[in-house]
Design a protein that fits this description.
The structure is a homodimer of 208-residue chains. Helix content of chain A is 45%, strand content 20%. Chain A is α/β, with parallel strands linked by helices and 208 residues long. In chain A, the strands form two sheets. Chain A has a five-stranded parallel sheet, with helices on both faces. In chain A, strands 4-3-6-5 form a four-stranded mixed sheet. In chain A, helix 1 packs across helix 7.
Chain lengths: 208, 208
């Protein structure tokens, strides 16, 4: 299946604003589609099936694994989480750009399966600002915030393997930069092969 | 020497508007510097040493070859043409972005020496439009134009090895796209290693 759209993977420090950037991309431009993950974890209050996640049984999830139906999947704390492959491929083939909001391990699995995927990692401008953002949410204990910051410090070791680091200092700028990087990717020569072939044919015809 | 700026290589079909795009980048933004090639060919009327080319003797050119002083060089019709290495490295180290306007063979040599260089290939939107542009210059015979179009058809075989194909349909758009691609390249994770290292240090300090 030809893949015309761009597959963009978004990861980032917890609290850096990855989710906000994705929401804004969806709101500001009408060409993005965000993959909904599948999980075996039970829904929490307020979560809607098909919006927050596709909630399925362990048996159903394992059948899809067996059928090679995930772009990437992992098990966290006894529950499966995965990105169903078919809807992603369908959107890309239709020319839409697809966003996956996933963790680093999943991101690198996607890179293996789709070497042409664009991997973005969202960071806050400074460590202190990341701490401030986590605290200002007001939803977590100090210990939980410290845990997130420790995870961020650990994760910083691998983010050089992403394609682009998005510094979320000014939100508007970060959204515009992300959109521009995804769209500019389409002028890559490797994606312009039909254009090159057409020009070549036209020039050969003219000079025959 | 650390290379902070971006090295952008511009090639393109003769008549596609490569020179115009480079002139506009220089005029519209103040962060570009265009390398002046060195040649052993004698100056033509109206050509100024140090502007059109650096005109040197064959002996001087070969001394620079021996000292590994060229980013790339080639011999065409008995004359040497080359890109002096030192000024390019100096501008990059100072944070400037450098543009080289060179042929495909030179472009691929630069890619070998600088894998991080960005290679742009400028095309007209169609073969017929390229022919029309060459004709409208009014400076060449029909046979010369046919020769240029044949060279373009031949060159089209290798331009998939460039990074980006710039379709010069609307000049303003092509200039803006080129500028944006060069500047966005700086957010590449591979170029953000100092930023990543700083964030990691800050996060480790906070969570100690």
């Amino acid at each position: 299946m030809e893949r015309k759209g761009i597959l963009a993977v978004m990861s980032g420090f917890s609290g850096a604003g990855k989710g906000t950037i994705v929401s804004r991309l969806l709101k500001d431009y009408d060409r993005y589609w965000v993959s909904v993950s599948m999980t075996t974890r039970p829904p929490r209050p307020g979560e809607t099936d098909g919006v927050s996640y596709h909630f399925v049984t362990r048996e159903a999830f394992e059948e899809i694994i067996a059928a090679d139906g995930f772009l990437e999947y992992a098990e966290y704390q006894g529950n499966y989480y995965g990105t169903p492959k078919a809807p992603v491929l369908e959107h890309l083939a239709a020319g839409g750009d697809v966003i996956l909001e996933i963790e680093t391990v999943g991101a690198f699995k996607v890179r293996e399966a789709f070497p042409e995927a664009l991997l973005f990692y969202v960071v806050a401008p400074t460590g202190a600002e990341l701490k401030r953002r986590l605290e200002s949410r007001g939803t977590e204990t100090e210990a939980q915030i410290l845990g997130r910051l420790k995870k961020a410090a650990k994760e910083a070791e691998v983010i050089n393997r992403y394609d682009y680091i998005l510094v979320n200092d000014d939100l508007d700028e970060a959204v515009a930069a992300c959109h521009s990087l995804i769209q500019r990717e389409k002028t890559r020569a490797g994606r312009s092969l039909p254009l090159i072939a057409r020009l070549r044919e036209e020039l050969e015809e003219i000079t025959e």
